Structures are given as C-alpha cells and as structure tokens.
Amino acid sequence: MTLCRIHFPGTQFDDMELPPHQPLAEALTVQNSPVLFGCRTGLCGTCVVRAEGCVTPPTADEQEILELYAPDEATARLACQLDVTGDLALCKFEVGA
User: Fold this and answer.
1) In this structure, is residue 8 part of a structural domain?
2) Which residue has the higher pLDDT, 97 or 55?
3) How far, in Å, CA of 45 to CA of 43, rounded?
4) What's the pLDDT score for residue 86?
C-alpha cells in the first residue's frame, strides 16, 4: 500500500504518513500538527488550511463554510473534511493574510 506523505511547510513539525482516505482529523493531534481542530465536523472553521497536493474537491457544505472564512482562496480547505488521496502540504491559514 502506498502511503500519503503530509508535510507542514514553514513549521518544525515532522512529516507524517497516512494510508489514502484515512480521516486526517483522526491522525492529527496537538502534538504532531500545527492544525487546530475545534469541532472536527466542518462547522466551526478553526481548521482552515491551505492545502496543496492530492485531495478530493470540497463538498458543497464545506465550500459554504470556506466562503465565510477564506473567500477567494482556491487552496483553502477544512482539514477536518480532507480526503487525502496522495502527498499533501498543509499550511496554517491566516485570515486576512
């Protein structure tokens, strides 16, 4: 089985590897990730990241939340909703940055 490498550019967090389609929110914890999770269901927006790499497109519900927190940001995603299908880089999203 090919594993997906998750990279956190600009941080001191180590890369991690996950099987494809494993829920990212279950694998990321405070100890191993700069991504914060408040709800883990896609409603609160604390886990908005810039995601570059292999992920499925956002659902309509996720896109609705992204339009509130990250309008006009094509790479913005809710980390709790990501379906990772290959290597991926995640950067913390700063509102207004």
Assistant:
1) yes
2) 55
3) 6
4) 92
